[in-house]
Amino acid sequence: MLRSTDRSDLAARINELKWFHPIDFGDGLVSPGRQDAARLQKMSDTYFSCSIVGKSVLDIGAWDGFHSVQAMKRGAASVTAVDNWNHWGNRACIELVRKYIVPDLKIIECDVYDISPETIGVHDVVLFAGVLYHLRHPLLGLEKVARVTGEWLVLETVMDAQNIPHPAMIMYPGSELNNDPTNWWGANRLCVESMLRDVGFTRIDFTQHPFAKARGIFHARRA
Which tens digit of pLDDT belongs to each residue from 112-135? Predict the structure, then answer.
């Protein structure tokens, strides 16, 4: 329980920042995120359906850290949050989350293309949610992610071209997808699975996104 002055200071700091995730700091303090907390909780349930107890977890595209916090709560031995906060959100948000909720959380600011075993290590379970379709070079990005995945890769992405009976990917050269110029690609399931196999994963399980028909979740594991 925070002292009243500490609670007031924290509440003021939370409200100064712009949040994407609603983060529960306890004592009635919840950040005003743009996403729905119940839906995010359901997504974590889906992402971490493979056991992460005692595992090292890497959250790529962590943003404010909702799923990083969930990983810690679900028994991960360690959690590392990676993002490029110069382009996405504000690092001050996840730093506040680390300070008050998960002090053992490791935070690394890094572009996807700079990810390697040397820069961030190899982790048992890697969460790669909401990132692939933002990459100009998705297969290169996936190669980088595969190199730091020890056991499981959990990939969530926008999907398109579902009526095409072979691996295919649609390019969005402008703001065609959700009026967002940072959205580049929509791959179909066959394409995502083919890319995952190409970078070394042999067991791939697909789950339809619980809230969006045009999104999918892939649990990929090495042999």
Answer: 999 999 999 999 999 999 999 999
List the structure tokens of 203.
């067991």
This prediction's pTM: 0.95
With H, G, I as helix, E, B as strand and everything else as coil, classify residue 207. Answer: strand
Task: Decide: helix, strand or coil at residue 144.
Answer: helix
| Strand-pair category, 56-60 with 123-129 | parallel
Residue pair 64/40 in contact by the 8 Å Cβ criterion: no
**Domains of the chain, first to last:** 44-221 (3.40.50.150)
Q: For residues 214 and 223, what is the distance between their CA atoms, to the nearest angstrom?
A: 29
Cβ within 8 Å of residue 221, ≥6 positions away: 151, 152, 153, 201, 202, 203, 204
Tally of CB atoms within 10 A around 99? 13
Residue 210 clears pLDDT 90, i.e. is over it = yes
Helices (H), the chain: 4-16, 37-47, 66-73, 91-100, 117-120, 138-147, 189-198
Helix (H) or strand (E) holding 128: strand 123-129
Strands of 106-109's sheet in order across? 106-109, 78-83, 56-60, 123-129, 149-158, 215-221, 203-208
**Cα separation, 105 vs 79, whole angstroms:** 6
